[in-house]
Amino acid sequence: MRAAILKAYREDLILDAVPDPECEADGVILKVLACGICRSDWHGWVGEHPRVKPGAIPGHEYCGEVVEAGPLSRWQVGDRVIAPFILACGQCPDCQSGQTTICRSQRVPGFGEPGAYAEYISVPRAHNLARLPEAISPVLAAGLGCRVTTAWHALTGRADLRAGEWLAVHGTGGIGLSALILGRALGARVVVVDVVPEKLSHALALGAEAAFDARAGDVAARIVEATGGGAHVSIEALGIAATANASIDCLRPLGRHVQVGLPTGHTARMEIHMNAVYMKQLAVYGTRGMPAWRYPSLLDLITRGVVDMSPLIARTVPLSGASAELRAFDAPMPPGVAVIDDFIR
Description:
Cofactor: Zn(2+)
Family: Belongs to the zinc-containing alcohol dehydrogenase family.
Protein name: Alcohol dehydrogenase catalytic domain-containing protein
Distance between the termini: 13 Å
Domain Enoyl reductase (ER): 8-340
Radius of gyration: 20 Å
CATH topology of the largest domain: Quinone Oxidoreductase, Chain A, domain 1
Keywords: Metal-binding, Oxidoreductase, Zinc
Structural class: alpha/beta
Shape: globular
Protein backbone atom coordinates (compact mmCIF):
# COMPACT_ATOMS: atom_id res chain seq x y z
CA MET A 1 0.00 0.00 0.00
CA ARG A 2 0.98 3.65 -0.31
CA ALA A 3 1.83 5.60 2.84
CA ALA A 4 3.48 8.84 3.95
CA ILE A 5 6.49 8.09 6.15
CA LEU A 6 8.45 10.29 8.53
CA LYS A 7 12.10 9.74 7.57
CA ALA A 8 13.59 12.70 9.42
CA TYR A 9 12.17 15.40 11.68
CA ARG A 10 11.10 18.57 9.90
CA GLU A 11 11.71 16.98 6.49
CA ASP A 12 9.02 16.24 3.91
CA LEU A 13 7.23 12.95 4.47
CA ILE A 14 8.31 10.28 1.98
CA LEU A 15 5.53 8.67 -0.05
CA ASP A 16 6.41 5.04 -0.57
CA ALA A 17 5.00 1.53 -0.85
CA VAL A 18 4.91 -0.38 2.44
CA PRO A 19 3.53 -3.84 3.31
CA ASP A 20 -0.22 -4.06 3.78
CA PRO A 21 -1.18 -4.12 7.48
CA GLU A 22 -2.17 -7.35 9.22
CA CYS A 23 -5.52 -7.74 10.94
CA GLU A 24 -5.47 -8.52 14.66
CA ALA A 25 -7.99 -10.95 16.10
CA ASP A 26 -10.02 -8.26 17.85
CA GLY A 27 -9.50 -5.67 15.14
CA VAL A 28 -10.22 -4.68 11.57
CA ILE A 29 -8.39 -3.45 8.49
CA LEU A 30 -9.82 -0.20 7.17
CA LYS A 31 -9.52 1.30 3.74
CA VAL A 32 -8.87 4.87 4.86
CA LEU A 33 -11.51 7.18 3.37
CA ALA A 34 -10.19 10.39 4.93
CA CYS A 35 -7.70 11.50 7.56
CA GLY A 36 -7.42 14.82 9.34
CA ILE A 37 -4.14 16.71 9.71
CA CYS A 38 -3.73 17.77 13.31
CA ARG A 39 -1.35 19.97 15.31
CA SER A 40 -0.57 16.83 17.33
CA ASP A 41 0.85 15.35 14.11
CA TRP A 42 3.04 18.45 13.87
CA HIS A 43 4.39 17.82 17.38
CA GLY A 44 5.56 14.41 16.18
CA TRP A 45 6.88 15.75 12.87
CA VAL A 46 9.12 18.29 14.62
CA GLY A 47 10.45 15.67 17.06
CA GLU A 48 8.73 16.90 20.22
CA HIS A 49 6.52 13.87 20.85
CA PRO A 50 8.39 11.06 22.60
CA ARG A 51 6.48 8.27 20.81
CA VAL A 52 7.09 9.49 17.27
CA LYS A 53 10.36 8.26 15.76
CA PRO A 54 11.71 8.25 12.20
CA GLY A 55 9.98 5.51 10.24
CA ALA A 56 6.58 6.38 11.70
CA ILE A 57 3.40 6.73 9.65
CA PRO A 58 1.44 9.66 11.13
CA GLY A 59 -2.32 10.06 11.27
CA HIS A 60 -4.81 9.58 14.11
CA GLU A 61 -7.97 11.32 12.84
CA TYR A 62 -9.45 8.84 10.42
CA CYS A 63 -12.53 7.09 9.18
CA GLY A 64 -12.71 4.16 6.82
CA GLU A 65 -14.44 1.15 5.35
CA VAL A 66 -13.87 -2.30 6.80
CA VAL A 67 -12.13 -4.54 4.27
CA GLU A 68 -11.16 -7.29 6.72
CA ALA A 69 -12.51 -8.15 10.17
CA GLY A 70 -10.85 -10.26 12.82
CA PRO A 71 -12.74 -13.23 14.34
CA LEU A 72 -13.29 -11.37 17.61
CA SER A 73 -14.52 -8.21 15.92
CA ARG A 74 -18.22 -7.37 15.70
CA TRP A 75 -17.77 -5.53 12.41
CA GLN A 76 -18.46 -6.74 8.88
CA VAL A 77 -16.72 -6.08 5.58
CA GLY A 78 -18.27 -2.97 4.06
CA ASP A 79 -19.11 -1.24 7.34
CA ARG A 80 -18.10 2.44 7.50
CA VAL A 81 -16.66 3.46 10.84
CA ILE A 82 -15.00 6.32 12.68
CA ALA A 83 -12.27 5.80 15.24
CA PRO A 84 -11.27 7.57 18.44
CA PHE A 85 -7.54 8.14 18.56
CA ILE A 86 -7.31 6.36 21.93
CA LEU A 87 -7.88 2.64 21.47
CA ALA A 88 -8.65 1.47 25.00
CA CYS A 89 -8.42 -2.13 26.21
CA GLY A 90 -11.99 -2.23 27.53
CA GLN A 91 -11.03 -4.53 30.41
CA CYS A 92 -9.10 -2.53 33.01
CA PRO A 93 -10.84 -0.81 35.96
CA ASP A 94 -10.65 2.60 34.23
CA CYS A 95 -12.27 1.25 31.07
CA GLN A 96 -14.90 -0.61 33.07
CA SER A 97 -15.83 2.65 34.79
CA GLY A 98 -16.21 4.40 31.42
CA GLN A 99 -12.99 6.40 31.67
CA THR A 100 -11.41 4.89 28.57
CA THR A 101 -9.23 7.92 27.82
CA ILE A 102 -7.01 7.05 30.79
CA CYS A 103 -6.70 3.34 29.95
CA ARG A 104 -3.21 2.35 31.08
CA SER A 105 -2.65 0.05 28.12
CA GLN A 106 -4.10 2.29 25.44
CA ARG A 107 -2.85 2.15 21.86
CA VAL A 108 -2.70 5.26 19.67
CA PRO A 109 -2.24 5.06 15.87
CA GLY A 110 0.29 7.59 14.66
CA PHE A 111 1.98 7.67 18.05
CA GLY A 112 3.94 4.45 18.48
CA GLU A 113 1.81 2.51 15.97
CA PRO A 114 1.28 2.95 12.21
CA GLY A 115 -1.18 5.74 11.52
CA ALA A 116 -3.66 6.66 8.82
CA TYR A 117 -1.56 8.71 6.40
CA ALA A 118 -1.91 5.56 4.31
CA GLU A 119 -4.30 3.67 2.06
CA TYR A 120 -5.06 1.13 4.79
CA ILE A 121 -4.75 0.95 8.56
CA SER A 122 -4.94 -1.90 11.04
CA VAL A 123 -7.20 -0.95 13.96
CA PRO A 124 -6.92 -3.27 16.97
CA ARG A 125 -9.53 -3.26 19.73
CA ALA A 126 -12.30 -2.57 17.25
CA HIS A 127 -14.85 -2.32 20.07
CA ASN A 128 -13.74 1.33 20.21
CA LEU A 129 -15.05 2.07 16.72
CA ALA A 130 -18.38 3.77 16.04
CA ARG A 131 -20.57 3.33 13.01
CA LEU A 132 -20.36 6.31 10.64
CA PRO A 133 -23.84 7.58 9.72
CA GLU A 134 -24.57 7.85 6.02
CA ALA A 135 -25.41 11.52 6.49
CA ILE A 136 -21.85 12.34 7.56
CA SER A 137 -19.29 12.45 4.75
CA PRO A 138 -15.86 10.88 5.26
CA VAL A 139 -14.20 14.30 5.00
CA LEU A 140 -16.40 15.74 7.74
CA ALA A 141 -15.94 12.60 9.84
CA ALA A 142 -12.16 12.88 9.64
CA GLY A 143 -12.46 16.59 10.36
CA LEU A 144 -14.18 15.71 13.62
CA GLY A 145 -11.01 13.81 14.41
CA CYS A 146 -9.65 14.42 17.86
CA ARG A 147 -10.53 18.13 17.80
CA VAL A 148 -14.35 18.00 17.93
CA THR A 149 -14.48 14.98 20.19
CA THR A 150 -11.87 16.43 22.54
CA ALA A 151 -13.67 19.79 22.62
CA TRP A 152 -17.02 18.11 23.30
CA HIS A 153 -15.63 16.10 26.20
CA ALA A 154 -13.78 19.16 27.54
CA LEU A 155 -17.00 21.18 27.65
CA THR A 156 -19.41 18.49 28.81
CA GLY A 157 -17.40 15.75 30.47
CA ARG A 158 -14.90 17.97 32.28
CA ALA A 159 -16.04 21.61 32.64
CA ASP A 160 -19.81 20.94 32.72
CA LEU A 161 -20.49 24.07 30.68
CA ARG A 162 -24.02 25.37 31.25
CA ALA A 163 -26.38 27.53 29.21
CA GLY A 164 -25.88 31.22 29.86
CA GLU A 165 -22.30 30.89 31.06
CA TRP A 166 -19.41 32.73 29.45
CA LEU A 167 -16.90 30.55 27.62
CA ALA A 168 -13.47 31.88 26.64
CA VAL A 169 -11.53 30.07 23.91
CA HIS A 170 -7.80 30.75 23.61
CA GLY A 171 -6.67 29.73 20.12
CA THR A 172 -9.12 29.29 17.24
CA GLY A 173 -7.53 26.36 15.44
CA GLY A 174 -9.45 23.12 15.05
CA ILE A 175 -10.15 22.58 18.75
CA GLY A 176 -10.88 26.24 19.38
CA LEU A 177 -13.38 26.47 16.51
CA SER A 178 -14.97 23.23 17.69
CA ALA A 179 -15.30 24.61 21.22
CA LEU A 180 -16.90 27.79 19.84
CA ILE A 181 -19.48 25.92 17.76
CA LEU A 182 -20.27 23.36 20.45
CA GLY A 183 -20.29 25.95 23.23
CA ARG A 184 -22.89 28.00 21.39
CA ALA A 185 -24.96 24.85 20.81
CA LEU A 186 -24.92 24.33 24.59
CA GLY A 187 -26.24 27.85 25.11
CA ALA A 188 -23.02 29.50 26.25
CA ARG A 189 -21.86 33.01 25.36
CA VAL A 190 -18.46 32.74 23.71
CA VAL A 191 -15.43 35.01 23.43
CA VAL A 192 -12.33 33.98 21.48
CA VAL A 193 -8.65 34.90 21.39
CA ASP A 194 -6.14 34.55 18.54
CA VAL A 195 -3.39 36.48 16.76
CA VAL A 196 -4.71 36.09 13.19
CA PRO A 197 -7.30 38.74 12.21
CA GLU A 198 -8.84 36.44 9.59
CA LYS A 199 -9.45 33.77 12.25
CA LEU A 200 -10.99 36.30 14.61
CA SER A 201 -13.36 37.48 11.87
CA HIS A 202 -14.23 33.87 11.08
CA ALA A 203 -15.04 33.22 14.74
CA LEU A 204 -17.30 36.27 14.90
CA ALA A 205 -19.13 35.02 11.81
CA LEU A 206 -19.69 31.70 13.60
CA GLY A 207 -21.32 33.40 16.58
CA ALA A 208 -18.59 34.55 18.96
CA GLU A 209 -19.78 37.64 20.83
CA ALA A 210 -16.28 39.10 21.04
CA ALA A 211 -12.91 38.35 19.48
CA PHE A 212 -9.63 39.62 20.94
CA ASP A 213 -6.24 39.90 19.27
CA ALA A 214 -3.69 38.75 21.84
CA ARG A 215 -1.04 40.97 20.26
CA ALA A 216 -2.88 44.06 21.56
CA GLY A 217 -1.98 43.44 25.19
CA ASP A 218 -3.59 42.11 28.36
CA VAL A 219 -6.26 39.92 26.81
CA ALA A 220 -7.34 38.45 30.15
CA ALA A 221 -8.31 41.89 31.48
CA ARG A 222 -10.29 42.61 28.33
CA ILE A 223 -12.19 39.33 28.69
CA VAL A 224 -12.95 40.09 32.34
CA GLU A 225 -14.37 43.45 31.31
CA ALA A 226 -16.37 42.10 28.35
CA THR A 227 -17.93 39.30 30.40
CA GLY A 228 -18.77 41.38 33.45
CA GLY A 229 -16.35 39.70 35.82
CA GLY A 230 -14.65 36.95 33.86
CA ALA A 231 -15.44 33.76 31.98
CA HIS A 232 -17.03 30.83 33.80
CA VAL A 233 -15.12 28.33 31.65
CA SER A 234 -11.93 28.86 29.65
CA ILE A 235 -10.44 26.52 27.08
CA GLU A 236 -6.69 26.61 26.34
CA ALA A 237 -6.21 25.16 22.87
CA LEU A 238 -2.51 25.65 22.09
CA GLY A 239 -0.45 24.14 24.90
CA ILE A 240 1.84 27.11 25.60
CA ALA A 241 2.44 29.18 28.74
CA ALA A 242 1.14 32.50 27.38
CA THR A 243 -2.30 31.16 26.54
CA ALA A 244 -2.49 28.88 29.58
CA ASN A 245 -1.93 31.86 31.88
CA ALA A 246 -4.30 34.08 29.92
CA SER A 247 -6.91 31.34 30.26
CA ILE A 248 -6.45 31.18 34.04
CA ASP A 249 -6.35 34.95 34.47
CA CYS A 250 -9.53 35.59 32.46
CA LEU A 251 -11.69 33.44 34.74
CA ARG A 252 -14.06 34.76 37.37
CA PRO A 253 -13.89 33.32 40.92
CA LEU A 254 -14.78 29.60 40.96
CA GLY A 255 -14.17 29.44 37.22
CA ARG A 256 -13.00 26.30 35.36
CA HIS A 257 -9.87 26.16 33.22
CA VAL A 258 -9.59 23.21 30.82
CA GLN A 259 -6.17 22.37 29.40
CA VAL A 260 -6.89 21.00 25.92
CA GLY A 261 -3.77 22.12 24.04
CA LEU A 262 -0.98 19.54 24.12
CA PRO A 263 2.00 20.62 26.25
CA THR A 264 4.91 18.52 25.05
CA GLY A 265 8.58 18.92 24.20
CA HIS A 266 9.78 22.34 25.31
CA THR A 267 6.30 23.25 26.66
CA ALA A 268 5.83 20.10 28.73
CA ARG A 269 6.75 22.11 31.84
CA MET A 270 5.69 25.73 32.12
CA GLU A 271 5.33 28.46 34.73
CA ILE A 272 1.69 28.92 35.71
CA HIS A 273 0.02 31.76 37.64
CA MET A 274 -0.84 29.52 40.57
CA ASN A 275 -1.72 32.43 42.86
CA ALA A 276 -4.68 33.18 40.61
CA VAL A 277 -5.78 29.55 40.93
CA TYR A 278 -5.52 29.87 44.71
CA MET A 279 -7.07 33.30 45.21
CA LYS A 280 -10.00 32.78 42.83
CA GLN A 281 -10.44 29.14 43.93
CA LEU A 282 -10.37 27.93 40.35
CA ALA A 283 -10.81 24.40 39.09
CA VAL A 284 -8.11 23.24 36.65
CA TYR A 285 -8.93 20.28 34.41
CA GLY A 286 -6.84 18.32 31.98
CA THR A 287 -8.55 16.53 29.13
CA ARG A 288 -7.45 14.29 26.26
CA GLY A 289 -9.76 12.69 23.76
CA MET A 290 -13.28 11.43 24.42
CA PRO A 291 -14.47 8.03 25.67
CA ALA A 292 -15.47 5.87 22.74
CA TRP A 293 -18.92 5.19 24.20
CA ARG A 294 -19.79 8.90 23.79
CA TYR A 295 -19.38 8.88 19.99
CA PRO A 296 -22.98 7.90 19.09
CA SER A 297 -24.47 10.80 21.07
CA LEU A 298 -22.14 13.34 19.41
CA LEU A 299 -22.73 11.91 15.94
CA ASP A 300 -26.48 12.04 16.60
CA LEU A 301 -26.29 15.78 17.37
CA ILE A 302 -24.60 16.32 14.01
CA THR A 303 -26.93 14.12 11.96
CA ARG A 304 -29.99 15.79 13.52
CA GLY A 305 -28.62 19.21 12.62
CA VAL A 306 -28.33 20.39 16.22
CA VAL A 307 -24.77 21.43 15.42
CA ASP A 308 -23.17 22.12 12.04
CA MET A 309 -19.48 21.25 12.08
CA SER A 310 -18.94 21.81 8.34
CA PRO A 311 -17.42 25.31 8.83
CA LEU A 312 -14.50 23.51 10.45
CA ILE A 313 -13.29 22.05 7.14
CA ALA A 314 -11.19 24.55 5.20
CA ARG A 315 -9.67 22.37 2.49
CA THR A 316 -8.95 18.84 1.32
CA VAL A 317 -5.52 17.75 0.15
CA PRO A 318 -3.96 14.62 -1.36
CA LEU A 319 -1.50 12.51 0.64
CA SER A 320 1.35 14.32 -1.14
CA GLY A 321 0.08 17.58 0.36
CA ALA A 322 0.45 16.51 3.99
CA SER A 323 4.01 17.80 4.35
CA ALA A 324 3.05 21.32 3.33
CA GLU A 325 0.20 21.30 5.85
CA LEU A 326 2.54 20.18 8.62
CA ARG A 327 5.02 22.93 7.75
CA ALA A 328 2.22 25.48 7.92
CA PHE A 329 1.79 24.81 11.64
CA ASP A 330 5.12 26.58 12.18
CA ALA A 331 3.29 29.90 11.72
CA PRO A 332 -0.16 31.25 12.57
CA MET A 333 -2.67 29.31 10.50
CA PRO A 334 -5.66 30.48 8.45
CA PRO A 335 -9.14 29.44 9.63
CA GLY A 336 -10.24 25.83 9.47
CA VAL A 337 -8.52 22.47 9.13
CA ALA A 338 -7.19 20.30 6.31
CA VAL A 339 -8.27 16.73 5.57
CA ILE A 340 -6.55 14.16 3.35
CA ASP A 341 -9.10 12.63 0.98
CA ASP A 342 -6.88 11.24 -1.80
CA PHE A 343 -4.36 8.53 -0.89
CA ILE A 344 -3.12 7.84 -4.42
CA ARG A 345 -1.62 11.24 -5.27
